[in-house]
Amino acid sequence: MNNSSSAKTFHPLDLVSFTDESKAVIDFIADYYKNIEKYPVQSKVEPGYLSSQLPDSAPYSPDSLEDILKDVNESILPGLTHWQSPNFFAYYQASSSTAGFVGEMLCSGFNVVGFNWISSPAATELESIVLDWMGQMLKLPSSFLFSGTGGGVIHGTTCEAVVCTLAAARDKALKELGGNWESITKLVVYASDQTHFTFQKAAKLVGIPPSNFRVLQTSFATEFAMSPDLLRSAIESDIKSGLVPLYICATVGTTACGAVDPIAELGKIANQHKLWLHIDAAHAGSACICPEFRHFLDGVELASSISMNPHKWFLTNMDCCCLWLKEPRFLVDSLSSNPEYLDNDASKSKVVVDYKDWQVTLSRRFRALKLWVVMRRLGVANLMHHIRSDISLAKQFEALVAKDDRFEIVVPRRLVLVFFRIKPKHEPDSRELNCKLLDAINSSGRAFMTHGVVGGIFAIRCVIGATLTEERHVKDLWNLIQEKARLVLLQMP
Asked: Taking all residues of the chain, what is their mean pLDDT, rounded to a whole number?
């Protein structure tokens, strides 16, 4: 009787509780943001902390939302590193906004799975429209847009974009080599020692032998950008060895120090030898909506594909990665599948986009709705102001570092990443000295930064870009750095 009675009263999508509980969660999140500066930016918990605070199994009967939010507050929040804190200066930020949050709510609320056009026509068509809007903001050539001869897709991350474009380039090349899959052992891919590690992971996933992955050394001479001369030499050497150069991954804004590869020069080499050139502009691409930074994409017309992540710096809550392709048919040829249960007249007509054929997975979220809301609620003018404001704060921080004789800028700032270190009395002490400084800053809970290594030099990365960061937070960070630097220097022999 009890089970039967319980079943009759079970309404998992009751509209009254939906409204009340949604409001309660929004209030909880709003309070979190109001108090976010009270939390240590980097979590202080020890591994395994959570298992001692939660039950060993799921509840048989439902818990109240009040109890759940109480546990979130007491058990989950202490285990978070607070990415939305204005004192978060690590990695590349995952920015957010009210518009991004609203868009995410709509996406989750509709909960559609738009793998092909008929499964939700609006999801497919809005994605194509939004990608053209974004492409126009970046002044991409029409060859990358649906309104021209290209097109695009929204993935979750750059990792997905790189896997998919590598697969497309691989299958295109194998077809040209006669369709023999044994030829995959001849395919070679190229990157610099500053290219994101995800490229090596992606190359493995699509079957490129690790021995055919060329990592080109960078140096201070090129400010750690990829050298066209080294690339050309590597390609010519591989051709002489009977190998088949396949794919180049160029980066606009590398992770360690923010280096920008020379797209135009690399593009000319790629076109000369018929390689696929992909541009990874995951973070820095957002800046290119501003005319004064668009030059970082000069030469994009020579590329085969380009990706950028609005969830990093474009105020679009996780996750959202825009990928544009000059010839989408190569992606579709590589990734398409047509099981009988998905057979439909719209797909057979070839006049619609079926995004299942533009990605690894079948299921997909309505991410375009979120990006569309961000663009509409904020507008291009405010988005450019956001980018410029962060860059202005980064300039201020860079100037503070440059004025202190104890510090040095290791690699010139391009946008919002300031790559700096304490100058050691003896170079062999540099890593230990700067590690200690970084640990002291992060363990204080008042800020969080990460490090990078270029040319064998360990340095600290300060990235401006959290949505809530203001000038006072940058000044507080510098005061904290100076405070900890004094202590660390006193401890060094």
From this structure: 95
